[in-house]
Amino acid sequence: MQFLTNIDLSKNELQNARIQNLATAPVSPVPGQIYYNTTDKTFYGWNGTSWVDLALFFNNKPILEAMTAVFTTTLKSKLDGISSGANKVENSVTNGHIKIDGVEQQVYVHPSGTNPHGTTKADVGLGNAENKSSATIRSELTSANVTNALGYSPVKGVGVPEVHSGLESARPSANNSGLLYLATDTKKIYQDTGTWVQLGGQDSIAWSAVTGKPSTFAPSAHTHPWSEITGKPTTFTPSAHNHDDRYYTETEMDQKLSGLAASNHTHAWNSITGKPTKFNPTIATPVQLGGIKVGANLTVTPDGTLNANDNPASFIRKQERFTVGAGQTVFNLTKGMYKPNTGAITWFLNGDKQDDRALTETSSTRVTLPTGLRAGDDVLLEYYEVINWHPFPRHASEHLTGGVDAIPLVTSGSDGLARKEDKAKLDGIATGANNYTHPPTHPASMITESTTQRFVTDAEKSTWNAKQNTLGFAPENSANKGKANGYPSLDANSKIPIAQLPDVAKSQTYVVINATARNALTGMLIGDRAYETTTGDSYIWNGTAWVVLSKADWENINLQWANIIDKPSTFSPSAHHHDDLYYRKSTIDAHTGDNTKHITAAERTAWNAKETTSGAQAKANTAETNAKSYADANFEPKNANIQSHIADKTNPHAVTKAQVGLGNLDNIQQATKAEFNTHNNDNTRHITALERSEWNAKTAKYAANVGNAVATTFAVNHKLNSQDVTVTLRQAVAPFAVVFADVEITDANNIKLLFASAPSTNQYRVTVTG
After folding, report:
1. Do residues 176 and 353 make contact, with C-beta atoms less than 8 angstroms apart?
2. CA-to-CA distance for 299 and 312, rounded, in angstroms?
3. Measured distance CA(386)–CA(389) in Å, rounded
4. Cα torsion at 55, 56, 62, 64 (round to 10°)?
5. By the number of CB atoms within 10 A of the CB, which of 93, 168, 199, 459 ranks highest?
6. Phi, psi angle pair for 479, to nearest 5°
7. Cα dihedral: 52, 55, 60, 63 (round 10)
8. Is the separation of the CB atoms in 482 and 500 below 8 Å?
C-alpha cells in the first residue's frame, strides 16, 4: 500500500512501528530515507550521497564526550605537571642503556656469570619439575604406565585401533578409548566412541552382494630379476647433495651399533629370565583363531595379526568441525569421504550427540539438515572413510610419502622416515664434525634482553613473590548477571528464571483427544511431545511436523487373576435397579389389562361371525348381475334417447348468458386464472418492493484515469450531486495496488486530488462513489 503524499500524525505517536527490512539497500533513495539491513543487522540512512550507519552517530556521541572529559581533566593536569624543557627519555635496544633526548646513556652494568643472581628452578616457577633427561622420561613411558594413567589402552599407530576379543557378556565398559572389540560368540564388532557402536557382525557376505568388485585382479607381491628390467641407466650419478650434521658417519654408526645383537640372534631357553609359568595358545593361523572360525569381516595375516575389517576394505575414522553460518543447512567434507546410507557418519551440535536420522546424506562428501541452524553454532561431523587395503599395508611403497598408509617424515619433534636428501647429507659429514663442547658458563654481556626475557632484581622478586597467586578461575563481572552473553541469575526460590532457560529446557508434553486437536497446537518447540487419548499414539515435534513415537496396544494385554491386587474376598451385589434394562412388574400388569390393545373372547366370537371379504364380494357380484339384467329389460329403449340428448351441444334449450348469471360479460377472449397467476408470479418482468427500495438506495459511481507526468493536482468532475462521496485511488495496471493521496471535496460535483510528486501519464485510476 503506497501513500503518495506526506502523512501528518498531528504530533501523535507512531506506536509498534517497524521500518522497512531489506537484505540489500533500496534503489533510487532520497535524502532522509532509512531502512534496516537484515544481512548485517544494521540501521542505515541516506544522506543524499551514501548510506550511513545510523548506529555510529548514536554510539560516537558518548565516546567523543568521554574523550573530551578525559582530556580536559587527566591529560590537562598531566600536561600542567611537565616542566618546560623537560628531557625526553626513551627505551634503548642496547642492554643497560636508555636514550635521553635521543642520546644513548649507560645506566646499568649487569654482573657476569651464567647465573649471577643464583636463580633456582623454584624462582622461575619450576620447583616441581624433575631434572630428568629425555632418555629417562622415554624409559618411563611404558605401555603399562600409560594404560594405568589413562584408564584404558591407547590406540596403537596412526588410525589403527587396538583390538580385543571375548564373549559378548565380557565386553568392558566404554570409556572413549577407540578400542575395537570382537564378540566371539555373536560375531559382532564394536568400537568404543564413548558408547559401544556396532560396526559389523554378519558371518558372511555373498559374492553377488559385494559391490564395486574389480573385473580382474592384480597379482600378489612378486619380484623381477635385474635382467628383466628395461630402460635402466648404465651409470648412476648421484644428485647434488651435502653431508652436514644431519647424518651420522660410518664410524659413529659403528660406535652406536657396537655391542648390539643382530636382529636374527638366538638365546638358550635357560638363559631367559622372567618367563611366565603358563602360556597362551599358539598364534592363530589365517584359518583358525582360538577355535573361532574367521568370517568375512575377520582376517588373520600370516604372522598371526587379527584384522577386524571386511577384506579387501578397511576404514579410517575422521572428524571435521564447522562454525555454522546463520540458517546454514549444507555441510561439505574436505578431508575425505564416506559411503552414504551405511551408518558411517554421525554428528554433534555444540558438543551434544544428535539423532543421525536428521541428516540427509546427499553425497559421499555432503550432508544436509532439514532446518537451518543459528549463527555461531558448532557442528562436528565424525565419519569412517573406507580405504582399499588387502588387508593392511605391508609393502614399503605404501608407507612412503603418497602411499595409502604413509609414514610422516621425521621432524625435530617426532620420529618418522628420513628424507633421501637428509641421508645424502649425513653421508657427507666427517667424523667428529659435530663434536662440540658447550662452555659451562657465559658472561652476562653475551645475554641479550628482550620484551620476553630480562634480568630481575632482588627487590622485583620480593615484590612479585608478595603478589596474589593466580586464581584458578576467571572472576565474573556481576554486571553481566542475567544479561545477554553473561550468566544466569537466581530467583527468590534459588531457581533460574524460566525466561533465562534455553528453549530445550522448556519442552513440554500435550495431551489431546485426536489428531485434529494435535494439529491445532501452536508454539511448539523441537522435542515437544503430544499424546492422543483416542488412539493412544505418542508424537514428537521435529521442528516442522509431528512424528509418531509409539502406540499402546492395550487390547492384547492379559492379566492373571493372581496378579490383581486388592480384589474382594466375597462378591455380594451392591444396591442397584434395572429400570433402564427391564420392564417393571406393574408395567407388564397394566399392559396385560389394557382392553384397548387386547380383545376379549366375546369380541373375538362376534368378529369371527362377521361376513368375510370373499363372501361379501360374491354377494355384491350377484346383486350387480341382477341389477344389470333388470335395467337392460326396462330402461335400455329409453336410454338411447337420453344419450342422444346428452350429446347435443347446440343448446337445444336456448339457454342465454343472462340465465346463467353472465349477462354483463362481453363476448371476448379472457385469460384463464392459471394464466393470470403465472403472469402475476413472474419475477423477471416484475420487481418487488424490496428491490425497488434497494435500487433507490444504491449509490452512483464515477471512474477515470489521472496523471500526466507534469501536474501534482487534479480536479475531478464526478457529477454525482453529493459531497457524501467515497474516493478510492489505485494503480491503473497490475498489481492494481491501492495508494493514498490528499483528497479535497470541493463541492457536490467535484473533488481535487493532490500528490507529493507528479504521477506518470494515466498512472492511477480514481473511483468516486456516492
Report:
1. no
2. 10
3. 9
4. -170
5. 199
6. -65, -15
7. -160
8. yes
